TrEMBL record:
One Pfam entry name: DUF4082
Domain DUF4082: 42-186
Domain of life assignment: Bacteria
Organism (species): Actinoplanes xinjiangensis
Classification via SUPFAM superfamilies: Pectin lyase-like
Name of the molecule in the record: Uncharacterized protein DUF4082
Keywords: Signal
Signal peptide: 1-31
Length: 465
């Protein structure tokens, strides 16, 4: 927790037990039953922290399936007399529901039920919290040194880029501060809306959130240099790069390695080139692509946010990376079309052993996913593209891939050198990967074009439309 000048704050680090309860995966409930992260028999190592101040305490979590949050739970010490209120928040701090606890017992687990269950979306993060006016909360340092999972519920480990074990002193509000990966024993009651078991978002062997991004053990520090990258061969290693106006690269061979990048990244000059390796790009709410330009290399990285994950003009290599969770603004004046990887015309592109997943659903203004991988001859011809050994996740879009043959576009009538081989297509809810089919716009007669060895995730060949 945050440090104040009083001795009472120093007590926390010295007194709070290193999480006495360390198990990170519990026995799941049946799929349609209410479920929480902890059971009523789970108890904190430190039940009463000697801190009398009012504070909001929370847990960041996601559910692996759609469902409803019905209430809030927390573990209470006898001295934590309250009153208490519970809240559910979006990850950005918008309160979705609030309830006052009534009929509490003297100590132990307490539960309050929202007047109306709150629908939540699978694999989006939320925060559940409670406020106490009297302090004396339960807490264990390092309780979120590891993730906590129970059935469809997942609370991530505390990291600089994805904090967990949250607090905010005062009269209440969205908690965002952390201290020592502390678990404050705040829980959620969740009911899945389906009896379909949760499926792993990505099968083993392909890139996912666990095997891409910043490697475990890397210590990240803030990047404090200028945000215009104008020095050739510059290396940014082990940094949290936060440039509010975006990241423009004007020089050749600029490398971001083992880093968290909080805005979209773009090459913006002739001769500029970037490599993003073992990093996470979190472009957030922007109509720009998360990574874009010419001479772009992305290796073993997780790319989220932005209208598209990667947009390539020419000469791009994307390998061993996880592209997902693009941004779509439902309040824009027109419908955004999202893509995992996009080229509007270019040459020299290689996509090898990635997980490609366009995730935004269709909205009322015509926005949503086009495909996981889109090659469109809008501003130039599509030439010399290799797409091999990737996992095409099922998408809300029409197709999982579009491969360059679009006669209605200015340069879409003759894509050449397009090689698509040994990729795996997930069937998903539609049974077709996309709403219409797995692949479209592949010109079998184009010079150097090859479609070979592409299969469904459950077996059998995938043929181009």
């Amino acid at each position: 927790m945050k440090h104040r000048a009083q001795t009472v704050r120093k007590v926390l680090a010295a007194v709070v037990a290193v999480a006495a309860f360390v198990a990170v995966t519990a026995t799941p409930a049946s799929a349609a039953d209410p479920v929480s992260l902890w059971s009523n028999t789970d108890t904190p190592g430190t039940i009463d922290v000697d801190d009398p101040d009012a504070v909001e305490l929370g847990t960041r979590f996601r559910a692996g399936v759609d469902g409803t949050v019905t209430g809030v739970r927390f573990h209470k010490s006898a001295a934590n007399t309250g009153p208490h209120t519970g809240s559910l928040w979006t990850e950005d701090g918008d309160r979705l529901a609030q309830v006052t606890f009534t009929g509490e017992t003297a100590s132990g687990w307490q539960t309050a039920t929202f007047p109306t269950p709150v629908p939540i979306t699978a694999n989006r993060f939320y925060v559940v919290s409670y406020h106490t006016t009297t302090g004396h909360y339960s807490a264990d340092n390092n309780g979120f040194a590891q993730a906590r999972d129970n059935g469809p519920l997942h609370a991530p480990a505390d990291t600089p880029e994805e904090p967990n074990g949250l607090f905010r002193y005062g009269s209440g509000g969205f908690p965002t501060s952390t201290f020592a990966a502390t678990n404050y024993w705040v829980d959620v009651t969740f009911t899945p809306t389906t009896t379909t078991p949760e499926e792993p978002p990505v099968p083993g062997g392909f890139p996912n959130e666990a095997n891409t991004g910043v490697p475990a053990g890397v210590t990240l520090t803030p990047f404090t240099e200028p945000c215009k990258f104008q020095t050739a061969n510059q290396v940014i290693d082990g940094k949290i790069v936060d440039c509010p106006d975006g990241i423009q690269v004007y020089a050749g061979n600029v490398t971001f390695r083992n880093s968290i990048i909080k805005q979209a990244v773009e090459t913006n000059a002739g001769g500029a080139s970037i490599t993003i390796a073992d990093s996470e790009v979190r472009a957030g709410a922007t109509s720009r692509a998360a990574v874009s330009g010419t001479d772009v290399t992305v290796l073993r990285s997780e790319i989220t946010g932005g209208q598209h994950s990667v947009r390539c003009d020419d000469d791009c290599l994307v390998q061993d990376s996880y592209l997902h969770d693009q941004f779509n603004d439902p309040n824009s004046s027109f419908g955004y079309h999202n893509n995992g990887f996009l080229s509007n015309g270019g040459t020299g592109m290689v996509l090898r052993h990635n997980t490609l997943w366009c995730t935004p659903p269709d909205n009322e203004i015509g926005g949503g996913c086009s495909t996981n991988l889109s090659l469109f001859g809008d501003f130039g011809p599509i030439t010399d593209v290799t797409v091999e050994n990737n996992y095409f996740h099922a998408t809300p879009g029409g197709y999982c891939g579009s491969f360059g043959y679009n006669p209605g576009k200015n340069f879409g009538d003759n894509p050449t050198g397009v090689v698509v081989r040994d990729n795996v297509f997930e069937r998903g809810p539609s049974g077709r990967c996309g709403g219409v089919g797995p692949a479209t716009s592949f010109l079998t007669t184009g010079a150097g074009n090859l479609w070979s060895g592409n299969t469904w995730s459950d077996g059998g060949p995938v043929d181009p439309a």
